């Protein structure tokens, strides 16, 4: 495990310690059930510099070597470098629905409504969901539906959980939160496709995935 120390302004608690544990799933803050797994330590640090998640405050990443007496201006943005590495987890791929020009929460809600109303309903497939500054890559390791699909960052227009908070019934039992992202249809500049997923592991919550994808989308507009 790795120890993460946070300095605060509370006189009763100047420093707080958080353990970072590693597993085959990746790295995460130990004892924080709402924290997702990250593919590498730098991705974990970057995400917590954007939003605190389970930490009491956001992390601050220095742009210079603190051990040097004379700081040197760095040519690259360390946050952007960490964003390139991204984060990944396994999710349930449910369905993809063409939306014409519709995007935003309405597109996600409409795609979920059509999916839940389908007879028979689509079969959920476990896929590896990786997001980075390059975009979103889905890998179906068992090749039940496809092998790999990539959605460049500049084609992804929206990502969020179901606005109506509906759930997907997992085959092994129990509800799973639904979420989705909207991306432009390949070869089109106007038509969109809404891709729908469900949580597979409570340790990799949809809210954390959505948050990371939303930061990627925001970075494209700067």
TrEMBL record:
Domain of life of the native organism: Eukaryota
UniProt cross-references to InterPro entries, sorted A to Z: PH-like_dom_sf, PTB, PTB/PI_dom, SH2_dom_sf, Tensin_PTB, Tensin_PTEN_phosphatase
Pfam families named in the record: PTB (PF08416)
Domain PID, first and last residues per copy: 84-221
Name this polypeptide is given: PID domain-containing protein
Organism: Ilyodon furcidens (goldbreast splitfin)
């Amino acid at each position: 495990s790795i120890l993460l120390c946070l300095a605060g302004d509370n006189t009763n608690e100047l420093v707080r310690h958080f353990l970072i544990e590693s597993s085959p799933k990746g790295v995460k803050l130990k004892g924080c059930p709402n924290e997702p797994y990250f593919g590498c330590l730098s991705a974990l640090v970057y995400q917590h510099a954007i939003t605190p998640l389970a930490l009491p405050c956001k992390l601050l990443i220095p742009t210079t070597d603190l051990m040097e007496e004379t700081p040197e201006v760095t040519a690259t943005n360390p946050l952007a470098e960490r964003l390139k590495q991204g984060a990944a987890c396994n999710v349930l791929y449910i369905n993809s629905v063409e939306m014409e020009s519709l995007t935003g929460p309405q597109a996600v809600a409409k795609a979920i409504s059509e999916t839940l109303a389908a007879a028979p309903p689509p079969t959920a497939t476990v896929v590896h969901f990786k997001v980075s500054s390059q975009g979103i890559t889905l890998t179906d390791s068992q090749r039940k539906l496809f092998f790999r699909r990539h959605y460049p960052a500049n084609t992804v227009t929206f990502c969020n959980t179901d606005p109506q908070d509906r759930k997907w019934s997992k085959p092994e039992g129990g509800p799973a939160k639904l979420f989705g992202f909207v991306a432009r249809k390949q070869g089109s500049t106007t038509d969109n496709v809404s891709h729908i997923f469900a949580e597979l592991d409570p340790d990799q919550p949809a809210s954390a995935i959505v948050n990371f994808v939303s930061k990627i989308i925001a970075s494209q507009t700067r």
